[in-house]
Amino acid sequence: MNWKRNWEGINLPTNENYKLSSWISEKGPNQEIVLSSRMRLARNLEERSYPNCAGEKELNEIIELVKETASHQDDFNLCFINIQELPEVERQLLVEKNLTSPAHIKKRMANGLLLNNKENISIMINEEDHLRIQILLPGFQLNQCWEKADKIDDIFENKLDYAFSEKYGYLSTCPTNLGTGLRASVMVHLPALNLTNNINKMLEAISQLGLVVRGIYGEGSESAGNIYQISNQITLGNSEGEIIDNLKSVTTQIIEQERNARERLLKEQEIRVRDEIMRAYGILKYAHKISSEETLKLLSHVSLGIDMEIIDNIDSGMLNELMILIRPAHLQKNEGKALEPQKRDLKRSELIKERFN
Amino acid sequence: MNWKRNWEGINLPTNENYKLSSWISEKGPNQEIVLSSRMRLARNLEERSYPNCAGEKELNEIIELVKETASHQDDFNLCFINIQELPEVERQLLVEKNLTSPAHIKKRMANGLLLNNKENISIMINEEDHLRIQILLPGFQLNQCWEKADKIDDIFENKLDYAFSEKYGYLSTCPTNLGTGLRASVMVHLPALNLTNNINKMLEAISQLGLVVRGIYGEGSESAGNIYQISNQITLGNSEGEIIDNLKSVTTQIIEQERNARERLLKEQEIRVRDEIMRAYGILKYAHKISSEETLKLLSHVSLGIDMEIIDNIDSGMLNELMILIRPAHLQKNEGKALEPQKRDLKRSELIKERFN
Q1: Would residue B9 count as lying in a domain?
Q2: ipTM, 2 decimals?
C-alpha cells in the first residue's frame, strides 16, 4: 500500500491525465435511468468513544488502527488521505465526487479517508462513526456493491473489534444506523416522470415502502436536474439481503415507470419534449454564464434527448462527467484558484461549451 | 402602366425570386436603431361621400378616377391590386409587409391598392379616406420619404379635386387627420433602453412632445421585440415641415440615447447582456417550436448582438427580413396552405434554423 499518496496525489482536473472516479466515468447497466449504486456500512470499534465524543488522541489511535488493518491487504490498493492536511477546495472535491460527506470534511481534527485508485471504494474514518465503508458503482449494480462492501467489511472485522450487540446488531451513534448499519442507495434520473407530472405520486409511493428520497447531494439537499437518491430508511430488523432486495425491486419498478413515461412522452407530446430538449441544448451551447442548478436542469433534458435519440452528437458518459465537473470545487481546481460564484458561472459555461463542441 | 398585374403578380415567398419590399430588404441610414421611415398622406375627393358612407357604385367610380390618374404617369410604375379579388392570406401578406392596414383588407367591397415594384410606394384606395398615399423607406430617411410623398401627391392633386378648406386644410373623416393629413413615423428598435429600464421614461417624454408611440403593427398593437412606431399626433396647425422636423429631432435624440444605452450596457453589464444575447441566439437556433412574439423578442437580442459585435456570423439584413417572414400569412404562403397556430410555431422554427445555418 502506498502510504505516501496524499491529497496532492488525488486525481484532479488540473492533472493532464485527470479522470473522474470510475463510478462517474465508467458505464453501468441501466445507466440511462440509474446513474449509480451505492452501499454504505456504518461500523464502530468496541470500547472506543464515538467520534463526536472522542478526544484527538483517541481519534488518532483509531485512524492508526484502521490504517494498520488496511495495510495488511493489497487487493483493493487503498490509500490514506489525511483530511486535516487537505486545503478546503480539495475537501470539497471529495464531497463533489460523493467520496465523503460534508459533515466529514467540516471536522477540524483527526479524520481521514481510505480511497482506492478507481475511487469506487471510500472508507471514511471518524465521520459520525469510526468507519463508514462505501462502495460506489456506475449504473444499477446493487449486488456487486454489496459483494465488494461485504468483502472489505470482513477484512476489517477480522482485525478490529466492532461494537456489536446481539439485540441491536452493529452499534452506531445514530439509531437509524443500528442493526446492519447498511445504507443501500441508487441515484436515479427521472426526467420523464417529472415532465408527465407523475414524480410526486411516485415519490410518495416510494416513501411508503420504507425508502427515503433525497436530492442529489444527499441528506437535506434539494433535488436538482431530476436526480433523486433513493435509499433504505431502516437498518434494524431486516437482513442485508432483505434491504437490498427491497431497494432492487423498487428500483426495477422505477426504471419501468420512467421508461414507460419516456415512451408516452415521445408518443403523446413529442413536439413539446423535442422543443424542451433542443432549447436546453441550445442554451447550454451558447449561454455566457450559467448556475450549477440551471446546468443540472438542462443537462437532464439533454440526457433525455440522447436516450430518446433526439440528440445524437453528444456522449452520455461525457454528460455524466459534466455533472461533476461543473460543481464549484471542480471549477476552482480546474482554474487553479478560488473563484467567486459569479466568476464560476462564467467558467462553468466555458467548460460546457468546450465539452459540447 | 401594367394594369394586368393583380394579386398573382405580387412577389410572394413561393416565387423562386421572392424578395420582400425594398423597405425591408434594403439598408438605410441608422438602421441599427431606425428600422424604417414612413410618410402617409390622407386625401379625399371633393363632392364624394367618404368611403364609410359611400355605396359600392360611388366607391368604384373613385377607384376608376384614381386609376385613371395614376395611368397617366410612368415615373413610379404603379400597379393596381384589387383587394376584393385577393384571397385572405394574400390580404394578410400585404398587412404583414405594412403595405396596407388591417381595416383596409377587412372591407368587403370596392377597395384597392396602387403599389410600385419596389413596394415602397403604396396608395390605399377607399380605406378610411379615399386616398392614403404611403411611402416606406429603410432606415432614417424622413426627408426622402416626404419628397416622394409630396411628388406623388402633386400628381393626384393636379388631376383630382381634393376636398380642402382654407381653415381646416385637407378634409378627412377623422379629425386627427385634418390639416396636412400627414402622418410621419419611424419604426425604432430600442433594446438597450429596455434592458437599462429607461424605456418607459423615454416613451413618456416622447408623448409629451406631441408624438404617439405604438407597437409594431400600428394603432392599438402592443410592442413586441422592443420595436416602437413613433409618429406625430397632430396634423392640423403645423406645416408638413414642422411635423417632419419635430419627428426628426426627437428621433435623433432617441438614436443618441439608445446608442448611449448600448455603450453603457457593454461597459457596465457586459456579462449579463452577452449572456442574454447568446442565449437568444441558442434558442432561435435550436428551438423546435416558437411563437412569433418570442421570436421577435429573441431576434431583438440577436440584432443587438450584431450591433455590439458579439455575434458576427449573422447578417442584420437577414434578421430584418426574418421579422416579416415569420409572420402568420408569410409562413402560410410559404407552405402553400393554411396552417393552424401550433403548426405555424413548428414551421417558424424551421424557417429560422434554415436562415441561421
Answers
A1: no
A2: 0.87
In this structure, are A26 and A134 located in the same domain?
A: yes
The verdict on A247 and A280 lying in the same domain is no
Q: How far is CA A110 from CA A10, A51, A58, A92, in A?
A: 19, 9, 9, 17
The pLDDT tens digits along chain B (357 residues) read 333 343 344 444 444 445 688 888 889 999 999 999 999 999 999 988 899 888 999 999 999 999 999 888 777 889 999 999 999 989 999 999 999 999 999 998 999 999 998 999 999 999 999 999 999 999 999 999 999 999 999 999 999 999 998 888 889 888 778 889 999 999 999 999 999 999 989 988 998 888 999 876 555 555 689 999 999 988 878 899 999 999 999 999 999 999 999 999 999 999 999 999 999 999 999 999 999 999 999 999 999 999 999 999 999 989 999 999 999 999 998 888 899 999 999 999 999 999 998
DSSP category for residue B293: H
B283: which chain A residues are within 8 Å (Cβ-Cβ)?
279, 282-283
Q: Are A311 and A74 in contact (CB under 8 A)?
A: no
Q: In what order do the strands lie in the sheet with A112-115?
A: A79-82, A112-115, A121-125, A131-138, A34-43, A182-189, A227-232, A211-214
Residues of B in contact with A342 (CB under 8 A): 271
**Binary contact (B283, A285; C-beta < 8 A):** no
A274 contacts B287? CB cut-off 8 A: no
In this structure, are B123 and B58 located in the same domain?
Answer: yes
